[in-house]
Structure formats: structure tokens, C-alpha cells
Write a structure and sequence with these properties.
The chain is mostly beta strands. Helices cover about 15% and strands about 35% of the residues. It contains one helix and ten strands; from the N terminus they run H-E-E-E-E-E-E-E-E-E-E.
């Protein structure tokens, strides 16, 4: 699957751009490594030109949606193991406490659970992608009652 090979590189470049964009002073050199993937950039005179990478497009302009967010910086996995069915798919109904994804941080696996009942409208982050604390992972249309 060609797109699957691009996901880790895309995620690494996005993470590097966010890191450089949040640095208070000029950056001369940056290196980001995730597993075997390494992104390294060096600028003369410490003058990087950083093009901000657009965030995921808003889902229906946030019309009454609730988001399951990353509770920590980690790598997001949408299925319990490679090749397994995902925890949830778009259109699935979820209940509070239901596992919807899993995060890996420092070889520890941390379940991500829905905190509200509703329908999965959109999975916002691709599988095996590094995520930041508070990053929106899954959009839910909250169920009434």
C-alpha cells in the first residue's frame, strides 16, 4: 500500500515543522528520529524557513461534534495489532469507556477510550502516527440521552 509508506514520513515532517515553529530563537539544525526514520535539516546562519503544515481539515465546521483527544504525546494505533480490525470505524456507535484506539509511549500501551456516547463521524489521525497532547483523534456526534 503506497500511502502507508508515506504516513510515517509525513508525520515526522509535520512534527519537525511544529517543533521548529515553537522554538523561541533561530534554529541552525534540527533532527527528528522515529524508529528507522530520520529527518534532518540544517540552515546556514540559523535562519530556517518553515512552512506551516496545515492541520486536518475541520469536520463539518465542528457542528456540535465532540472530540476524543490524545491524553499524552505518543504514537497512535487504531487497531490492537497490525492487520487486525480497527477498534472503531466511521459510522460506529460508541459508549463511554469503550476503547477507540491505543497509544504507545516508551514501549507502554495506553488505551484511548470514548468519554461520551455517540457515532464516530471521522477518524482524524492515520494509524501509526505520532500525536501531541490534546490533539483531536476522533470526531463524535454525541448521542442525546
Amino acid at each position: 500500500m503506497p500511502e502507508g509508506n508515506a504516513d510515517p514520513l509525513d508525520a515526522a515532517v509535520r512534527s519537525l515543522a511544529r517543533l521548529i515553529g515553537s522554538t523561541p530563537g533561530p534554529v541552525r539544525r534540527a533532527r527528528l528520529q522515529h524508529g528507522d526514520l530520520v529527518v534532518e535539516v540544517e540552515w546556514p546562519d540559523g535562519a530556517p524557513v518553515v512552512a506551516m503544515v496545515p492541520a486536518a481539515p475541520p469536520v463539518e465546521a465542528d457542528a456540535g461534534l465532540h472530540y476524543v483527544c490524545a491524553p499524552m504525546v505518543a504514537t497512535l494505533y487504531l487497531a490492537p495489532s497490525p492487520g487486525a480490525d480497527p477498534f472503531v470505524r466511521e459510522g460506529d456507535q460508541v459508549v463511554p469507556g469503550q476503547q477507540v484506539a491505543i497509544l504507545e509511549a516508551m514501549k507502554m500501551m495506553i488505551p484511548v477510550e470514548a468519554d461520551r456516547a455517540g457515532e464516530v463521524v471521522k477518524v482524524l489521525v492515520p494509524n501509526a502516527t505520532p500525536v501531541e497532547y490534546g490533539e483531536r483523534l476522533i470526531a463524535l456526534a454525541v448521542s442525546e440521552g
